[in-house]
Amino acid sequence: MDDQPAFSGFQPGKPPGQTGWHKIKLSSLACASLNFRSKNSSKHSPSGQLPHIMTRPIEVWMTPPGPNPWKVIVILEELEVPYEIKSIRFEDIKKPPFIDVNPNGRAPAIIDPNTDLTLWESGAIILYLIEQYDTQKKLSFGSLHEKNLLNQWLMFQMSGQGPYFGQCGWFNVLHPEKLPSAIDRYSNEVKRVLGVLEKSLHSKQWLVGDKCTYADLSFVTWNDRMDMVLGVPNSKPLKDFPNVEAWHNRMISRGSFRKAIEIREKLMDEQGLMPNGMPKGVNNMAEYEDKMKREEEG
Q: In degrees, to the nearest 5, what angle opens at C-alpha 122 toward C-alphas 240 and 168?
């Protein structure tokens, strides 16, 4: 399940560091375009072997609030692959040009001009980026055993963490009426997912092997919204899961995550959005839908 509307942005706990460079321009469709390149990518690519297969930045189409597009950005940053963000307002995600890229109207999607591939669904995009650009196995492994375990955890993130965390956030924060049965169901599912991770991280730092991989990083953007998911801002929602909390802290200290937060803050500010992804002055999804309807009619 890739990006649902508004819920689910994530906020930084600390001011992000400055890495790389970017350039912003606005299109006539309220689509912000940003170009990003790692500090060293003008001289060489991450593996030292990419220049012959990569000459142009990958386009990443997104709406800024949701966690799923930022999983892709974190992976691109880790691999130092140049990319360009096409930032779309949520109001425009079911309209051209975005539905010409992704007919499902969900973010993210990518266009890789180096391979002439258009791809949507964040999990599929991550697997593609790893296969195509992680030639030195910075975020992956080559062995049969570890390779399949990585895919197992990515599938768990896509089928377990993302959907359940998203629904929990919806009913806790965005739904116009409180439904205790729905809130309880999805809050319990969030705790179940965290319990699986807590047990699996016992006595180790990473899900697979001895290094941070794409499997680990696929969880970081949703886990960073735990306060919003459970509707308890400024708390420490991972405190009952110490292994998960330590694992999460290791990931959010990485430059790739800090850079993603830096970019997200800029795009959110440009669109006048609050941390929960709603426009300033809008309290729930019903109000947001009414606002969009008025804009369409006006």
A: 40
* Element housing 287 (H / E): helix 285-297
Counting Cα atoms < 13 Å in the Cβ hemisphere of 34 gives 21
pLDDT tens digit sequence for 167-189: 999 898 888 889 999 999 999 99
**Which stretches of 16-161 are DSSP H helices?**
67-79, 98-101, 122-133, 144-156
> Within 13 Å, how many C-alpha atoms sit on residue 78's CB side?
30
Structure tokens belonging to residue 219: 């969880």
- Pick the closest to residue 124 from 144, 146, 106, 137 (CA basis): 106
- Please compute Rg for the chain using Cα positions: 19
Contacts of 130 (CB under 8 A, 6+ apart): 75, 139, 140, 214
Residues facing 273 on adjacent strands: 279
User: In this structure, are residues 10 and 225 in contact, taking their beta carbons and an 8 Å threshold?
Assistant: yes
Non-local (6+) Cβ contacts of 215 within 8 A are: 149, 150, 151, 153, 154, 157, 207, 208
CA distance 241 to 137: 29
d(CA 147, CA 166): 27
Residue 252 has pLDDT above 80, yes or no: yes
CA nearest 86: which of 111, 113, 55? 111
Name the DSSP letter for residue 269. Answer: H
Q: What is the pLDDT of residues 188-229, one digit of tens each?
A: 999 999 999 999 999 999 999 999 999 999 999 999 988 878
The owner of tokens 């079911």 is: 94
Percentage of the chain lying above the pLDDT 90 cut: 65
Tokens of 38: 């790692």
d(CA 252, CA 264): 14
What confidence score (pLDDT) does residue 36 get? 62
